[in-house]
Amino acid sequence: MPRFPTAAAMPAPFARLPAPPYYAVIFSSQRTADDEAGYAEAADRMMRLASQQPGFLGAESVRGADGFGITVSYWDSEEAIAAWRAHAEHAATRAEGRRRWYAHFELRVARVERAYGLKESSFA
Amino acid sequence: MPRFPTAAAMPAPFARLPAPPYYAVIFSSQRTADDEAGYAEAADRMMRLASQQPGFLGAESVRGADGFGITVSYWDSEEAIAAWRAHAEHAATRAEGRRRWYAHFELRVARVERAYGLKESSFA
């Protein structure tokens, strides 16, 4: 039995990304207590829709029991991020998010310069 | 009552950061089922220790019920990240993490180019 998971055995929540450079959109948010069903449906829909956009590389997302969450989506270019931002359904859903689902959020766009996983880092 | 939280009212899990550019270390991880008490103590200790390092700007962290988590720490330079990586106690704790606490992890280092929060984005 391998001590470290191989790439093929990487658990599902991890994004499988090419070698850097690429771009990350780091979205941290605090949910309101409102409309869990509507929020969950919209979040699923946005993740499906994002994954169909040109330049989308992958995403990782988690939310804790206190409603604070972090979603990081990865893109091959700034242009791909801008195009997804301009997507009409995404823009409409963001407006609903600001109105109803998020008590607060912060969004940071970053260029990933280097990356490694558990297996590689065990030699570092 | 303000519709959007002011900076002063920003909920605690959000990092308060200067204007970009700065650097992000995006650490996503899947916990094993082992040693929750030891892990929690080490995680708290590392967060306290990181926050005392030169160049540390802030961090945001969340772990879900399934054991998948994302922690993003922010730094003012690549040099600050390298110095924290070389910190002896941090290195020893990382080794324990690879051995015991993490089934898998991915780490990405990125340069944050731009950022905004809920209030600003409501005008976008």
From TrEMBL, chains A, B:
Coiled-coil residue spans: none
Highest taxon listed in the record's lineage: Bacteria
Pfam families assigned: ABM
The protein's name: Polysaccharide biosynthesis protein
Record-annotated ABM domain positions: 24-95
